Amino acid sequence: MNESPYKVRSPVVLLVFNRPDTTRAVFEKIAEARPESLYVIADGPRPGYGEDPELCRQVLEIVSAPSWPCRLVTDISEVNLGTMRRIVSGLDRVFEQEERAVILEDDCVPDNSFFRFCDELLHRYAEDNRIAQVSGGNFQLGRRRTDCSYYFSRYSHCWGWATWRRAWRCNDADMIHWPDFRDRKRLRDVLDSSREIAYWEDVLEKVYLGEIDSWACRWLLSCWREHMVNIVPEVNLVSNVGFGPDATRTTGYSPFAGLPVETMPFPLSHPSDVLPHRLADEFTSARMFRHPGLVRRVLGLLGGPRR
Length: 307
Hints:
- The chain is an alpha/beta fold.
- Helices cover 36% and strands 15% of the residues.
- The protein has one domain: Spore Coat Polysaccharide Biosynthesis Protein SpsA, Chain A, CATH 3.90.550.10.
- The strands form two sheets. An eight-stranded mixed beta sheet has the order 3-2-1-4-8-6-9-7, sandwiched between helices. Strands 5-10 form a two-stranded antiparallel sheet.
- Strand 1 (12-16), helix 1 and strand 2 form a beta-alpha-beta unit.
């Protein structure tokens, strides 16, 4: 007999914009998990994009009538704020009310076990300031790194994730700490090679100067500044279905697009030490972040393909 879908205990946040098809797929998975509290954060239509008003309307129609009893909190912008401002302002409001939350973008489709995985680890590490977040994505392409259910990483993957108020309040969305962090060469405390350091210094400087609009890079830097690590499951729990011609940043091929999901076995097996897995992070760096000309792809791989 098949088990009933897991009912999530943590509040769930859904970030939406103008993609009704992918939004519907994600919303159906959230409906299976039946959260008691659902936050919907929506950006508004872009000026000059004639289809946006209707597409945004269709998205709001999908998410405005949950099929299960829940507390629905909507944060809908009438104007287009852009990725960084919309996500950061929305999550700031969520964590004014909640101690923890599970967060999904409108193109990140989770396995049902993702919700239990997040619930259990949000509880286990609630007071552990070394941990920034729980990720749902695994990008090791079938390579198992440990005998446990998850490992720790220096990279904050955000294709389906969860975090706490205590961690999110460290988010330096305005990057006011970046000049000092940069000038004191503190990337050396985080990264292993001069190539990685040069790569990330270039990316983060572009974000700081406003040449790149990325909430995810700002969050990643905040985690590094606070010496926090990220939890990564040993199996992939979230599939990003948002790659394609209608995406802004992830329009081309990626080996990480539409990865199949697996079901996490329970009970969870926990690592004994809270240390980044060097081999896994080296693979991530080599496959995602070291090749020339991938600044736009970095944004998608960290935070999801957005407008």
